[in-house]
Design brief:
There is one protein chain. With 200 residues, this protein is mostly beta strands. It is built from three helices and ten strands; from the N terminus they run ααββαββββββββ. Strands 1, 2, 4, 7 and 8 form a five-stranded antiparallel beta sheet that branches. A five-stranded mixed beta sheet has the order 3-10-9-5-6, with helices on one face. A hairpin with a 5-residue loop joins β9 and β10.
Amino acid sequence: MPGPGDDDLVAEKTEGYKVGDKKTIAEYTNLDQNDESLNRWKASLGLATGTPLAVQPGDTRRCVIESLGLEVEGRPDIIIDLTTPGSVDQLKRKPFIIKEGAKFRMKAIFKVQHDVLSGLKYLQVVKRKGIRVSKDEEMLGSYAPNTADKPSYEKKFSQDEAPTGMMARGHYEAVSKFLDDDEHTHLKFEWSFDITKDWK
């Protein structure tokens, strides 16, 4: 059964883009070893460097979102540790407070395991009183599995500015998800925020 915002949470399709064949880490490492540009791309992903992180037995996830954060200019960061049981459910029940006109951005810390993660994207739909007020899509990139030297990735999203004025103040609900080129959803969650006249 579709959940809230499912119709809106569809990634834009790029005309002519075709997802490449999936390869193992070893296949990527050995691919066209004499191709200088391909070798630079592999190095930028961190392929074949460092000791792979241990993966818990039975954990088949390729991307694990470990925390979400809200950075607001002049305020301490708010970090939600998603490794804590029940933390995803808390996101909807405990709204973020954002002062009108404040500049803010979301950030995520995540790890990749097993194989290369291709084309990770973040999608977000915001509604107020059931009416969609915004839809955002941000390409986060492709990532090699994490290593002992680099146990996680941090990605900061584009900065945004909270609307101002009496009509903009109030409660907003959002649905967000992280998905990849294969349309596999790695995390989907509901959350909320309140635009207020002053910091509470």
